[in-house]
């Protein structure tokens, strides 16, 4: 390569739309944020070609790794419009970790992928700060990631986010839904709003609003529309650990994300069972009513698109429900009994 002819003043990578300097500046800004999350198992983190993590689990009889990947979707378009980025960083960790913990796993480490039109180091720093805070909340190490500047793929101001989480669970203690039987009780852990799903519909519903209208205080919501919709996804790690660490038997867990309760609740059932959800028991936040009314969205469509007030669903034996509810009652996410398990053919009933 050293023998190749050079041409001074020729076309540069930056002129083609990619700034190596901006990428380097962003990495220096996020390194200390990632380092804040490192656990003793992190051998090497951000900066190398591959992050190293100690996979010795002497305290686990049969360790099984659990992996999940997800993204924030078009919620990033709303974040870009109002230049509010930290919340979507928290979203990214939460959507992945909430999947991993449904097995009873402890999250171990997290990686991210950030793609954008033009790399802005301060924006990347804000996004990663949100990731850092969510990782600290659930004891998960942020050990690496990737940034891609693709001006020909993304429009000015646009960004896309993807995340990758890995956890570990003892095969002997994993939650897999296999012990669920008719008569078991469905306990819902409330969401704090829309979370990160359905934003293509949300943006369509409110597309005619001006920036001022988006940011105007709503008595119905208790905040502005943009504040409500950009509220980060609730992280349920602490709630589930409270139950499991206190010996509560949780038979099945479902993360209620895209597809809502109708599409997610049945995924954790053994054959021959149905889930019945009591509509009136679900603690729906005002934002869902506002979306339905403003957009003329049918109730069935709402339930199949949004979490409608429940971000995580637990299935617990009836004799253990009071204990489980009591353990969680003083925590940040108050549990609600929202349904039951009946004999059936794998369907989810909202009634």
Notes on the protein architecture:
- The protein has 351 residues and is an alpha+beta fold.
- It has 2 domains: 154 residues, PurM-like, N-terminal domain (60s Ribosomal Protein L30, Chain: A), CATH 3.30.1330; 166 residues, Phosphoribosyl-aminoimidazole Synthetase, Chain A, domain 2 (Alpha-Beta Complex), CATH 3.90.650.
- 32% of the residues lie in helices and 24% in strands.
- The chain has 12 helices and 14 strands.
- A 6-stranded mixed β-sheet has the order 10-12-7-13-11-14.
- The radius of gyration is 22 Å and the shape is globular.
Give short descriptive properties of this protein.
Phosphoribosyl-aminoimidazole Synthetase, Chain A, domain 2; four-stranded mixed sheet; alpha+beta; six-stranded mixed sheet; 351 residues; 14 strands; 60s Ribosomal Protein L30, Chain: A
């Amino acid at each position: 390569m050293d023998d190749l002819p050079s041409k001074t003043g020729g076309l540069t990578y930056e002129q083609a739309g990619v700034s190596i300097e901006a990428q380097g500046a962003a990495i220096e800004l996020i390194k200390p944020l990632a380092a804040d999350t490192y656990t003793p198992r992190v051998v090497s983190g951000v900066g190398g070609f591959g992050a190293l993590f100690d996979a010795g689990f002497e305290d686990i009889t049969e360790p099984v790794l659990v992996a999940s990947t997800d993204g924030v979707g078009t919620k990033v378009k709303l974040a870009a419009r109002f230049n509010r980025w930290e919340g979507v960083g928290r979203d990214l960790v939460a959507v992945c970790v909430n999947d991993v913990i449904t097995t009873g796993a402890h999250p171990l480490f997290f990686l991210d992928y950030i793609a954008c039109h033009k790399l802005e180091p301060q924006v990347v720093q804000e996004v990663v700060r949100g990731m850092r805070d969510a990782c600290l909340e659930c004891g998960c190490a942020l050990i690496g990631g990737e940034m891609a500047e693709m001006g020909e793929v993304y429009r000015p101001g646009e960004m896309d986010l993807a995340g990758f989480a890995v956890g570990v669970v003892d095969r002997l203690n994993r939650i897999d839904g296999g012990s669920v039987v008719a008569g078991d009780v469905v306990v819902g852990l409330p969401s704090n709003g829309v979370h990160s799903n359905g934003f293509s519909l949300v943006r369509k519903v409110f597309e005619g609003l001006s920036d001022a209208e988006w940011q105007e205080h709503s008595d119905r919501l208790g905040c502005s529309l943009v504040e409500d919709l950009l509220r980060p996804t609730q992280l349920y790690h602490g709630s589930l650990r409270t139950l499991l660490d206190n010996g509560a038997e949780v038979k099945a867990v479902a993360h209620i994300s895209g597809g809502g309760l109708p599409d997610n609740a049945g995924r954790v059932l053994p054959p021959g069972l149905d889930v019945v959800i009591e509509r009136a028991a679900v603690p729906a936040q005002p934002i869902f009513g506002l979306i339905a009314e403003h957009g003329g969205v049918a109730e069935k469509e709402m339930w199949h698109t949004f979490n409608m007030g429940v971000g995580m669903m637990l299935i617990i034996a009836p004799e253990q429900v009071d204990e489980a509810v009591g353990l969680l009652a003083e925590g940040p996410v108050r549990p609600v009994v929202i349904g039951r398990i009946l004999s059936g053919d794998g369907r989810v009933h909202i009634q």
